[in-house]
Structures are given as structure tokens and as C-alpha cells.
Design a protein that fits this description.
4 helices
């Protein structure tokens, strides 16, 4: 699987999480997205997410962008 395809899949997955939490009370949305990604995404996936974020976050839902500051950035591979 190409890196580009993986990035598209991660963006889609992150946006699906954001879409779910968008229906939750506003005060819990950002923390909900970050907690879900921290709990269920392995470090490799979070590392790739930060590569997307560091490159500008193209395609990511604004809720994911807001949650990024609460997502645990893994050590470099």
C-alpha cells in the first residue's frame, strides 16, 4: 500500500471519529477525538497522522485539527 493511500485512509478514519464526536456536547468533542485516537491508534498510525498535520493537515476535519494538541505524538521511528 502506498504512503499516499495510507494517508488518505488515515484522514478518512480521523474524520469519521470527528464526525461521531461532532454530535456530542461541544465541551467534550475535542477531548473525545483525542482520547479515542490516543487509546485506539497504535504509535505508527499516530506518527503518520502527525506527518499529515505537520504538512498542513490537508483534508482533516477542523475537529481533528483542534484535537491534535491533545494527541500523544509518538517518538520518531
Amino acid at each position: 500500500m502506498s504512503h499516499e493511500h495510507t494517508a488518505e485512509k488515515l484522514v478518512r478514519m480521523a474524520n469519521q471519529i470527528a464526525s461521531f464526536f461532532a454530535s456530542q456536547p461541544e465541551a467534550t468533542r475535542v477531548d473525545g477525538v483525542a482520547t479515542h485516537i490516543n487509546r485506539f491508534w497504535e504509535p505508527r498510525m499516530r506518527r503518520q497522522l502527525f506527518e499529515i498535520l505537520d504538512a498542513g493537515g490537508d483534508g482533516l476535519d477542523p475537529l481533528v485539527l483542534d484535537a491534535a494538541k491533545l494527541i500523544n505524538r509518538p517518538e520518531p521511528a
